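A common beginner's mistake is to predict each chain separately and then try to dock the pieces by hand. The better habit, illustrated here, is to supply every component at once so that their relative placement is modeled jointly.
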Amino acid sequence: MGFTRRGVLSAALGGATALATGYRPAFAQGAPIKVGILHSLSGTMAISETTLKDVMLMLIEQQNAKGGLLGRKLEPVVVDPASNWPLFAEKARELISKENVSSVFGCWTSVSRKSVLPVFKELNNILFYPVQYEGEESERNVFYTGAAPNQQAIPAVDYLMSKDGGEAKRWVLAGTDYVYPRTTNKILEAYLISKGVAPADIMINYTPFGHSDWQTIVSDIKKFGSAGKKTAVVSTINGDANVPFYKELGNQGVKATDIPVVAFSVGEEELAGIDTRPLLGHLAAWNYFQSVKDPANDAFIRAWKAYKKSDKAVTNDPMEAHVIGFNMWVKAVEKVGTVDIDKVIDALPGITAPNLTGGVSTMLANHHITKPVLIGEVRADGQFDVVWKTSGLVPGDAWTDHLPGSKDLEADWVTLKCGNYNTVLKKCG
Amino acid sequence: MPFAPLLRFFMLCSLVVLSALALATTQAQAQAPAAMPAQGERLAAGLERFKADSFADTEAAIAAIAASGSAQGVAILSALADRRLFAGAAGVFYRDAAGQAFDALTGQPATIPADAAMVRLNNRLRNVVQAALGTMTLLSPDPAQRVRAAEAVFRSRDASALVTIEAALPSEQNPRVRRAFEEARAAILLSSADAPEALRIAAARRIAEAGDNDAISLLRQFSGQTTGGLNAVINQGILSIEQAQRIRAWGQTLWFGISLGSVLLLAAIGLAITFGVMGVINMAHGEMVMIGAYVTFVVQELFRNHAPHLLDWSLPLAIPLAFVTAGLVGIAIERGVIRFLYGRPLETLLATFGISLVLQQAIRTWFGPTNREVSAPSYMAGSFEFVGLQITYGRLWIVVFTLCVFAALLLVLKATPLGLQMRAVTQNRRMASAMGIRTRFVDAMTFGLGSGIAGVAGVALSQIDNVSPNLGQSYIIDSFMVVVFGGVGNLWGTLVAAFTLGVANKMLEPFAGAVLGKIIILVLLILFIQKRPRGLFALKGRAIEQ
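With all components supplied together, the output reads:
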């Protein structure tokens, strides 16, 4: 984006209104606190993001029923960026400049997050990002409540290498062709090689978005799996492409007991609309499953079903991330007694909030949180059986230790005040 | 020298066979109360470990039950494999396939207490259960069960199964079971390091003969781990299987290409009418496909709720309904919007694009943004082997279905009055009008026909893709590509183009990958259109001059 006159003007205006917002509570006691919700309600991503909007509305409703925040009512402001990446930036600007929101909960894809980043930095606001992502980022204005690669991908691979996971020796890394799978697979490849896996035992495959003809790839996977070594598939295949993939696996007779597939993007919501027979026994790695038995989780599921007025409504991992993120934001605001952006950003690290699987997550200095990692197995009813979990909570690592470019980097917004501090050169950026 | 171990092995074999016979007789006496206590104790000890709900204990329990020789062992382990085994403080219970509950310890009918939870397995334990079941059910009276058992033994290579197989082989009559037994025996012999070399070589040859993925996988495991003649035989076996697989891979690629081509054809065939014959750039074509898929969903849902036993018939019934629904929507679009825009391609493009967004969002509002479940009828699930090629039933049906739709469409165009009028109107609208043809009516019908066929395509595509509001989007580009490549206005061109693109895509995919393969196809297509702007089979004559 160049410096057009209109751009500068709107930036200046935005800055002015942002300033005005900071002062407003002093004058207008009791005026509602606005919370922005930036999730696609139409277009391709609506399938995943619509429920996140609903869960935010429910959380805000619950908070208001408890008397609001700082004695003021919370008011949700919902916008629809329509799965259109540039529109995400526009809508973010609208939320911050026009609606004067005190924080925004939103985005799903990494590209939408990257698209709104400059807006959040420029207008200084807070974004809570609830989805597992490829890492390699830590920004002052963003709080990442989803999993970093070390909270999902690496433990999943560890599990498959373990005795219970089948001691896999040969690996297929299959993904959709965009930034999250590419980066995750690069990290996984480096990790596998560091664990002594030969490069010839790793097959990497990318497919376009919405790929529906999996015949060749599944038959390649079968062939790759016939080398006399236990083979496993790590799938970063995104969204809709998963269903035809699993159907083809089923049709070609690839069983989970022979070649298990562990997926990072298949959750309860995705399974709700499909025939689960071909998926039985395949795995997913998440930080939350609806099937986890825990009082907090039970209460959340009950509330959600009541809110959706449907007994079939399911919960999933990014929803839990929003629950944690929202509770952390509420606690931080209560701690500093204001919704002032800078004060809340400084207050958030160190804030804790219970997650829904029985632990207490902490916001870390690198703006990521601590989470448990669970491996679940697909059941016939579209839910997951937890077959393995980490013994404690895993702290999110913004910069992976397995890639040469990022292993020296460290993010710390508390003492270093830097998102990419280089520990070798001892400087920021 | 080599005789001594051979002799010893045979002596061992006969000894083991004898003891197996002895074991079989004890098993036959298992019902006798005298044998009960020891077995019962072992069984009870095994069952006890199910209650711990830990994978390690479950594994120990499986081993204990398999070793107990108890009469209900097979029933318990089958129930475990099929998620029908429950453990609680009061004991361990299982349901049989019919849903009848039993106490695992006594084998007597029982009711399962509320606190008993299903015994969980992971993939590793599932393999352990299958292996144990395989060894235990080799002598099952059901031939299919025996084949499954032998296949499980082939995988587990459980040496303790060898005696049973050796004893059963001479009297086995069923050729399929025989083959499976022989392969299982070969797998065990190959993997037992102390078996004589001659037997292991024969086993390696036998496995190489089987020639499938499991065989090559097994041979590769032992390649390089042995020496001398055996290693040579193994490597030779691998080579011969690889060679056969290479030849088969070509056939397989061709089949994949045909099946992709049929999907492309199915998606494009309706567009060949609306765009090809009428010249309307119809961006809402994909949404007609989507409507067809949603009709399938609604029909299937009705069947599921009201007549679940007829569920397999939901697809044939959905076909005419999808045709009518999508056709009516098409006619409405033509009458409501497109007829005002004939001869203005840009406006048509924008208007139909707008309609496609409206339809998508309408479906999203009514049915929700998430995928809807359309299950495959039993005749479309699974696959079969045909001269070594793996052919999935679903894809085969779609190829057949596509060709039927194509033939039916051709028939309509060539042999019905409506088809005649359609062709007349496309060739020369004014002349047709002068001859008394109601061109407006024909336009609406043609557009309806094209849309209806797109709806029918949706029924088939609901089987291989997601039924979601985005379904149509993924096919619109491919459809235009096929129609333009084939030559606008030529149905046969569309057919040839679809299969050419399908096969070319699948040929490229193994080398270039799915992403690059698609790009290469697009680049080639652009170059081709530069050379032949009217596609493969251009219409000749005055008609195209308009």
